[in-house]
């Protein structure tokens, strides 16, 4: 189910890449990709039908009958890229870790650039490759841990100390996908104690700081800083813990199955006349097991936005695609959140088919009395329903996160 969901997302991204192409090439590719999308969509539907109906209308996620759970657990419990030694790596001090590659701009490491370090990573390795990036600002072109570079762990000297930065944006005639300052698509990617940044600014529109599309990705104690489209949770299963995420419009977006837990999510002051939207989830098929779950986080405003929040309303999200799915649970919502909570993408688009939920949030922005009245929006009152968006049920994290050593809450609360 995860692979099929990711395949459909990848095809959708490929189609988006032809948006500005003209002539026969665009028509030919669009038709071919449409056929592929239909095949994958049909496969998703067959898989869903064969493994039981959903408990709630509009929420087809990993809650199938027992035999499916057994199949998923069997294949996910001990993935080869999650080695037992990773548990210690996540909590050890940098000085106690023996890195395979050390990046230092001053020449005191193994290599001087992150690109050199990535090049040295073996392909399809079962061994965890540890890359320690010493403090400094690193601005390099096309930094990407590719699909064959599995099992890679980046460790920095801390938030704001080790900084991977860039300034690419769609204003340079790039697709959003290709604006990322750093990207990772290899399975088992881990990042710890670093900052990922895109400094293009709000006037340059979409500009990604970090894009991840690898399965079983973990981002721990990192800053992700940008404006529009900061964090691209593109596809597969992902987990973020104790991170600080900054942005303005659609700044957590994509179609992964992702849990963001114990993080601080900062809305910044946008361009004049803009409205802030924290999420833009782009699930396009009702059988994809994807969505954004924000759990036990703080959703707050930066000081510049706080001073002018009356002029720049902030919303929890808007639907990028027809079956957009986002849940905010047990989180603090600041007074910059608009009373309506959620924003339309375009008139009535997706309001009947999206799934937006809130569960037991608190703070001055958490009151639900004036929330939108869309058919797809709900205040979640059932613990069973909310539990479907936890680490344990939404990304099956209890089977693979323990081996990474990252702290996590499997259920709704301790």
Describe the structure.
Pathway: Glycan metabolism; pectin degradation; 2-dehydro-3-deoxy-D-gluconate from pectin: step 1/5. GO terms for molecular function: enzyme inhibitor activity; pectinesterase activity. This protein has helices spanning 2-16, 24-50, 66-76, 86-91, 114-120, 303-306, 383-387, 391-394; strands at 101-103, 129-133, 136-139, 144-145, 152-155, 162-165, 182-184, 190-192, 195-197, 210-212, 217-220, 223-225, 231-233, 237-241, 244-247, 249-254, 257-261, 264-267, 276-281, 291-295, 298-301, 314-317, 325-329, 332-333, 355-359, 377-379. It is globular. The chain has one domain (2-404): Single-stranded right-handed beta-helix, Pectin lyase-like (Pectate Lyase C-like). The two termini are 29 Å apart. Mean pLDDT is 90; it is low at 60-82. 19% of the residues lie in helices and 25% in strands. The strands form 3 sheets. The chain has an 11-stranded parallel β-sheet with strand order 1-2-5-8-11-14-17-20-23-25-26, covered by helices on one side. It has an 8-stranded parallel β-sheet with strand order 3-6-9-12-15-18-21-24. Strands 4-7-10-13-16-19-22 form a 7-stranded parallel β-sheet, with no helix packed on it. The protein has 414 residues and is an alpha/beta fold. α1 packs antiparallel against α2 (24-50).
């Amino acid at each position: 189910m995860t692979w099929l969901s990711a395949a459909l997302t990848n095809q959708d991204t490929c189609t988006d890449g032809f948006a500005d192409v003209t002539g026969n090439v665009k028509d030919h590719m669009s038709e071919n990709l449409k056929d592929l999308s239909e095949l994958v969509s049909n496969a998703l539907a067959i898989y869903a039908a064969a493994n039981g109906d959903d408990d709630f209308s509009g929420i087809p996620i990993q809650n199938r009958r027992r035999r499916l759970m057994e199949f998923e657990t069997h294949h996910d419990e001990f993935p080869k890229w999650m080695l037992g030694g990773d548990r210690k790596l996540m909590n050890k001090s940098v000085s106690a870790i023996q890195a395979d590659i050390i990046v230092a701009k001053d020449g005191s490491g193994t290599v001087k650039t992150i690109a050199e370090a990535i090049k040295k990573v073996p392909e399809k390795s079962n061994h965890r490759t540890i890359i320690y990036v010493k403090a400094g600002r690193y601005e390099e072109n096309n930094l990407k841990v590719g699909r064959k570079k599995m099992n890679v762990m980046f460790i920095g000297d801390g938030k704001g100390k080790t900084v991977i930065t860039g300034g690419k944006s769609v204003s340079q005639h790039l697709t959003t996908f290709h604006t990322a300052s750093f990207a990772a698509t290899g399975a088992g990617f881990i990042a710890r104690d670093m900052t990922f940044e895109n400094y293009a600014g709000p006037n340059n529109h979409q500009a990604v700081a970090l894009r991840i599309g690898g399965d079983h990705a973990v981002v721990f104690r990192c800053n992700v800083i940008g404006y529009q489209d900061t964090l691209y949770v593109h596809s597969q299963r992902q987990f973020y813990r104790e991170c600080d995420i900054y942005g303005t419009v659609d700044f957590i977006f994509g179609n992964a199955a992702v849990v963001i837990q114990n993080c601080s999510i900062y809305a910044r002051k946008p361009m004049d006349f803009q409205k802030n939207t924290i999420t833009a989830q782009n699930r396009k098929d009702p059988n994809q097991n994807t969505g954004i779950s924000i759990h036990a986080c703080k959703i707050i405003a930066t000081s510049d936005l706080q001073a002018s929040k009356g002029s720049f309303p902030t919303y929890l999200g808007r639907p990028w695609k027809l079956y957009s799915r986002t849940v905010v649970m047990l989180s603090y919502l600041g007074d910059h959140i608009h009373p309506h909570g959620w924003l339309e993408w375009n008139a009535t688009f997706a309001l009947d088919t999206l799934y937006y939920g809130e569960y037991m949030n608190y703070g001055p922005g958490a009151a639900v009395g004036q929330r939108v009245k869309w058919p797809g929006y709900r205040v979640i009152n059932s613990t069973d329903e909310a539990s479907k968006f936890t680490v344990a049920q939404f990304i099956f994290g209890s089977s693979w996160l323990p081996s990474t050593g990252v702290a996590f809450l499997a259920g709704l609360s301790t």
